[in-house]
Design a protein that fits this description.
By secondary structure, the chain is α/β, with parallel strands linked by helices. The chain is built from six helices and seven strands, in the order E-H-E-H-E-H-E-H-H-E-H-E-E. A hairpin with a 2-residue loop joins strand 6 and strand 7. The longest helix is centred in the last third of the chain and has 20 residues. Strands 3-2-4-5-1-6-7 form a seven-stranded mixed sheet, with helices on both faces. Helix 3 packs parallel to helix 5 and helix 4 crosses helix 6. It has a single domain, classed as 3-Layer(aba) Sandwich (Rossmann fold).
Amino acid sequence: MAKIILATGGARSGKSGYAQGLAESLPGKRAFIATCPAPSGKDSEMLERVERHQQDRLGAGWETIEEELDLQHVLRDRFDVDVMLIDCLTLWISNLMNGNQDLSEDTIITICQEIITLCRQRSGTVIFVTNEVGCGIVPENDLARKFRDLMGRCNQELAKGADEVIFFSCGLPLFLKKSEST
């Protein structure tokens, strides 16, 4: 049964760096599951971000798996990986919404429960990185409110099933939920 860790916080809060360092401290084969769609040539800033993240993983034994939608497939089929770092759920929810404007909170709950079940069928460690998007103002349009709500539901479900939940602010980790073994 894999240990499940959820790292959450705002943008630039330190969660991805912490998650990567944690993953690199664990033994075994590592895979970085990138949910970010490949940036187009028009989005040079996002392309630079992706390249910087790739450079940060060089020489540390990472395999990169690009999967924008079907996290279940990766969890189900890649038993050769001991440590999975999925970064990030925020882009994953956005990708799911792009393909399905009628995506509901109930559907997200079901998908997240399936993801937890699949993690429990693995050995090793699965680390999820996600943004906490519910701490700001209420968005002015319905699509943005729906995104916030789906993201919040996803985070709640994964936190419920996780062994550890770490909230990041100002680069500092706050342990909301710790497993008994740590």
